[in-house]
TrEMBL record:
Domain PDZ: 276-367, 388-487
Source organism (scientific name): Bradyrhizobium japonicum
One of the protein's GO biological processes: proteolysis
Subcellular location: Periplasm
Enzyme class: hydrolase
Annotated segments matching region Disordered: 88-111
Name of the featured protein: Probable periplasmic serine endoprotease DegP-like
């Protein structure tokens, strides 16, 4: 598994034993072995847990021990090395087309875990277990090996569904409700760590809804059950024998378990697996907004107490939010009846909502709650990112600027648009310089940013900005909320101190 350290773990086998007697003050053994039900659960579900074996053909890289060194034509050593490497490669030199120095492609193999959810031969595992594989095989608990086909994958949750033809009746497991887990509940992991198939480990739920910034929908179950390389894709069971998670990641500086493992919760897995089985792909809901967190400063500027929700920084002109009346500056605090505490909450609940469903979205606008009805669209997922090309900027011109908030500000002109490559659709006041050690520098404002609004009012000159700042100071405000655009028109909110 990429049972990552959040980096991939490496195979390091080492066995050590440490015997420690544990007695209470009265001389009786301490109860530290866990509940008696673990053995019953393992016996019940072990045949539904499988090993996943994959193979991939990769191009061999040059520079190895069998690679012909590069020699100048006519070198006295050319004939010697030619004969030497031909002999090492065997008759014919082992080269493609008789060309000297070519290395043939080679096969690599990897192992992971998975589990059967349907007796027709449907298996759930991690995407990274089978990614780029030329051949996928499922190995049952009794050692039977069967070729499997890929049904579909979801890279964002790192899940995959496989299908194989059963050679005999199978044992399948069902999903439990991960929302019902409590901190300290016992859980059981079964998988193929270090190619030791059918390994059972147990631990507790250490944390829920853990965000480790590995993807847009992070909400992991954290457990101290031993999870190692090869456990990826394997199930995490509760004591009823229901799958409440898919083991996916570990944090480890050495490659072995240190008691910090992460599993995708069954609530997420069920929704993804259902769509992969039905469509072969994910069809996620789409609101059509860009969002950011609500800091204490932003909350104070927007009269929101306490700080919460997801701040709308931009609205897609072709997205569902636009016709519903959602605007930049709105703060989403509830979506389809579910509270939104932060941007991650909104991203997850929107993605999990059916495409085409009409939902109520509760926003805060200018201190007042409003409800908007939105019919969700479908999120498109083009895995293409256009690289920005940096070109030399023209020589700076003499500008009429005004200082405010630690910024040098100027009205947008044709020359400034050219200098900073600002799109014609962007309106406002351009930042030409940021004072070092200022609040603006700390908030990562930079030359070329354009201030579109100050305290939710449009501005077109540095004088407009200074006027709004002076008024806010008189009103006793500690910070001012700026709507800032980059050169491409992407918006974000920034709160700066006015003191």
């Amino acid at each position: 598994m990429t049972a990552a350290t959040i980096a991939p773990t490496r195979l390091r086998l080492g066995l050590a034993a440490l015997a420690v007697s544990a007695f209470s003050a009265f001389g009786t053994p301490a109860l530290a072995r866990g509940p008696d039900g673990i053995a019953d659960v393992a016996e019940k579900v072990i045949d539904a847990v499988v090993n996943i074996s994959t193979s991939q053909t990769v191009e061999a890289k040059g520079g190895g021990t069998n690679t012909m060194p590069q020699l100048p034509p006519g070198s006295p050593f050319e004939e010697f090395f030619d004969d030497f490497f031909k002999n090492r490669r065997g008759p014919g030199g082992g080269s493609k087309g008789g060309e000297r120095g070519d290395n043939p492609p080679r096969k690599t193999n990897s192992l992971g875990s998975g589990f059967i959810i349907d007796t027709t031969g449907v298996v759930v595992t991690n995407n990274h277990v089978i990614a780029d594989a030329d051949e996928i095989n499922v190995i049952l608990n009794d050692g039977t090996k069967i070729r499997a086909d890929l049904v579909g994958v979801d890279k964002k949750t790192d899940l995959a569904v496989l299908k194989f033809k059963p050679p005999r009746p199978l044992v399948a497991v069902k999903f439990g409700d991960s929302d019902k887990l409590r901190l300290g509940d016992w859980v059981i992991a079964i998988g193929n760590p270090f190619s030791l198939g059918g390994t059972v480990t147990a631990g507790i739920v250490s944390a829920k809804n853990r965000d480790i910034s590995s993807g847009p929908y992070d909400s992991y179950i954290q457990t101290d059950a031993s999870i190692n390389r090869g456990n990826s894709g394997g199930p995490l069971f509760n004591l009823d024998g229901d799958v409440i998670g898919v083991n996916t990641l570990i944090i480890s500086p050495s490659g072995g378990s240190i008691g910090i493992g992460f599993a995708v919760p069954s609530k997420t897995v069920v929704a993804v697996v259902d769509q992969l089985r039905q469509f072969g792909e994910l069809r996620r809901g789409w609101l059509g907004v860009r969002i950011q967190g609500v800091t204490d400063e932003i909350a104070e500027s927007l009269n929101i107490k306490p700080a919460r929700g997801a701040l709308v920084a931009g609205v897609d002109d072709k997205g569902p939010a636009k016709p519903a009346g959602i605007e930049p500056g709105d703060v989403v605090v509830k979506f389809d009846g579910k509270d939104v505490k932060d941007p991650k909450d909104l991203s997850r609940v929107v993605a999990d909502t059916a495409v085409g469903k009409e939902v109520d979205v509760v926003i805060i606008r200018k201190g007042q709650e409003e409800t908007k009805k939105v019919t969700l669209g479908r999120l498109q997922d083009p895995d293409k990112v256009q690289a920005a090309v940096k070109t030399d900027e023209p020589a700076p011109e003499k500008l009429v600027t005004q200082k405010a908030l630690g910024l040098d500000l100027a009205a947008l002109s044709k020359d400034l648009r050219t200098r900073y490559k600002i799109k014609d659709s962007v309106k406002g006041v351009v930042v030409t310089n940021v004072e070092a050690n200022s609040d603006a520098a700390e908030k990562r404002l930079s030359a070329g940013d354009v201030i579109v609004e100050v305290a939710q009012e449009a501005v077109s000159s540095g004088a407009d900005i200074q006027k709004r700042v002076d008024q806010l100071k008189k009103d006793g405000k500690k910070s001012v909320l700026l709507l800032v655009s980059n050169a491409d028109g992407e918006l974000r909110f920034v709160a700066l101190s006015v003191q």
